[in-house]
């Protein structure tokens, strides 16, 4: 986990570091164009997803992380509630879903770098080239893997500063200039500004389907809970950090989306390029076109920080699964920085293979969309288990000390579960705005891949061997394992006690 290294040096994560890491993990500016298409209606989608998903996720994760601060994250939470089979599945979904996530988020980075070229026509041509996209994805991804392998101390700093430079500052720029354009350009905004525009067009079902991707935009707030023990006084500081990160996430998404919608025509919105086009238009308005190249590089740094965070977090959790004895000992190998090197490398190989999707799909946009939806579906399986665990653990372990106790846990966890279930269902429907080839093939591709990825961890769990458990493992036992050990010790003590004559 890198924890040994951190403690040895006396280095601990601050609230600010966790906040920025969470914002970096959650906020990807690549989501903005897909929501900017809805104009003021995006406010409804962001608010709805925040109420039924982001807030429940942040609250439930904060209680679970502080109640069970031992290693394991979502694996421990779900295992405590439903047993290790389902805990393994939940953690496997988190580990697997980042595999299709990496190509999509790195596509945004590739497009950003293409727009360093001041000639927009040339930049757009480069950004649509599948071979360029694939090459960029693989090079930057493997570079991120090597950074993550260096341990918590390195990847936390990279994530923090890349997040500030590549996510927070660019978001502030598009917000400030977008709203300045609205009020001072003298030109009419390209979206309708009325109370009626706040309500989206629900008669067009395909609009609702693409908007469901906003759930993925908010996903990830629980991921850095695996680092809760890398903080001083985590039971107090972690809930504060996750609350600040949640508010910052909503503000960045909402205001940045409107900044784009004010200036980019709806018909010109492109999932992979519109953010860069918005910057170009805004910088031309203030006669500072050269800033477009600077922002393009900064956005690429933001992608790097996000990828490093998403490599480290899930692999830290999966390493806990391995050390608990549910993966062969080969996967339990750590490097000198305490990172699960073999798990990371296996994941990297799969990402490399999957990235070839960019070459065989009809377009970069089509590959971007289908991989994004696959990521949403797999991630939501984990969230369904997490929300259900929050409810069950309140029932089965009521006496467990809860340093942070969510007020209205049953309400928030139920709301999160139903919201996740809604997004899960909608994610299988092809969006009407994007050419993804045959709709039937699109759905079949998703169904087959989801079935395969869910079956793999269940099969591995069924085939587990007793020798996979390393007696010297530092994975702390589950509650029921401690109780079993105490009961066995009590039975042995009773059996060895001398009988009274």
Automatic annotation (TrEMBL):
InterPro entries documented for this protein: AA/rel_permease1, APC_superfamily, Glu/GABA_antiporter_put
Membrane-spanning ranges: 12-31, 43-65, 86-111, 131-149, 161-184, 204-226, 238-264, 290-313, 343-361, 367-388, 409-430, 442-463
UniProt keywords, alphabetically: Cell membrane, Membrane, Transmembrane, Transmembrane helix, Transport
Key word Zinc-finger present: no
Organism superkingdom: Bacteria
Any one cellular-component term (Gene Ontology): plasma membrane
Pfam families: AA_permease_2 (PF13520)
Subcellular location(s) per record: Cell membrane
Membrane-related topology note: Multi-pass membrane protein
Gene Ontology MF terms in the entry: transmembrane transporter activity
UniProt-listed PANTHER family: AMINO ACID TRANSPORTER-RELATED (PTHR42770), GLUTAMATE_GAMMA-AMINOBUTYRATE ANTIPORTER-RELATED (PTHR42770:SF15)
Name the record gives this protein: Putative glutamate/gamma-aminobutyrate antiporter
């Amino acid at each position: 986990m890198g924890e040994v290294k951190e403690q040895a040096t006396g280095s601990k994560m601050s609230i600010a570091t966790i906040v920025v890491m969470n914002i970096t993990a959650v906020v990807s500016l690549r989501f903005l164009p897909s929501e900017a298409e809805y104009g003021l209606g995006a406010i409804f989608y962001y608010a709805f997803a925040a109420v039924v998903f982001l807030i429940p996720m942040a609250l439930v994760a904060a209680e679970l992380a502080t109640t069970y601060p031992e290693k394991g994250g979502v694996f421990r939470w779900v295992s405590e509630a439903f047993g290790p089979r389902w805990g393994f599945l939940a953690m496997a979904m988190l580990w697997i879903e980042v595999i299709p996530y990496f190509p999509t988020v790195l596509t945004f980075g590739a497009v950003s770098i293409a727009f360093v070229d001041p000639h927009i026509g040339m930049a757009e041509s480069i950004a649509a080239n599948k071979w360029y996209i694939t090459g960029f994805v693989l090079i930057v991804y493997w570079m991120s893997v090597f950074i993550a392998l260096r341990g918590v101390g390195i990847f936390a700093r990279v994530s923090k500063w890349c997040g500030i430079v590549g996510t927070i500052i660019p978001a502030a720029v598009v917000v400030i200039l977008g709203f300045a354009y609205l009020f001072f350009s003298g030109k009419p905004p390209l979206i309708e500004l009325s109370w009626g525009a706040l309500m989206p067009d629900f008669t067009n079902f395909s609009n609702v389907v693409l908007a469901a991707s906003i759930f993925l935009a908010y996903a990830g707030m629980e991921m850095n809970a695996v680092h809760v023990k890398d903080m001083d006084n985590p039971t107090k500081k972690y809930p504060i950090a996750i609350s600040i990160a949640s508010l910052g996430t909503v503000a960045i998404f909402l205001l940045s989306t409107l900044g784009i919608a004010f200036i980019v025509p709806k018909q010109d919105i492109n999932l992979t390029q519109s953010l860069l086009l918005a910057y170009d238009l805004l910088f031309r308005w203030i006669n500072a076109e050269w800033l477009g190249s600077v922002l393009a590089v900064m956005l690429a740094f933001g992608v790097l920080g996000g990828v490093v965070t998403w490599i480290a977090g899930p692999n830290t959790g999966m390493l806990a699964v391995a050390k608990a004895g549910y993966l062969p000992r080969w996967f339990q190998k750590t490097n000198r920085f305490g990172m699960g090197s073999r798990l990371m490398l296996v994941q990297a190989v799969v990402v490399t293979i999957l990235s070839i999707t960019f070459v065989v799909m009809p377009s970069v946009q089509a590959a971007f969309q289908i991989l994004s939806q696959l990521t949403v579906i797999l991630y939501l399986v984990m969230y369904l288990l997490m929300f259900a665990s929050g409810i069950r653990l309140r029932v089965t372990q009521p006496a467990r000390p809860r340093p942070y106790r969510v007020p209205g846990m049953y309400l928030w966890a139920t709301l999160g579960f139903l919201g996740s279930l809604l997004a899960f269902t909608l994610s299988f429907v092809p969006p009407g705005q994007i050419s993804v080839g045959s709709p039937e093939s699109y759905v079949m591709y998703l169904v087959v891949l989801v079935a395969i990825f869910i079956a793999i961890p269940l099969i591995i769990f069924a085939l587990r061997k007793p020798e996979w458990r390393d007696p010297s493992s530092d994975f702390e036992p589950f509650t029921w394992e401690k109780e079993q050990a105490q009961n066995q010790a009590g039975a042995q003590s009773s059996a060895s006690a001398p009988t009274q004559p």
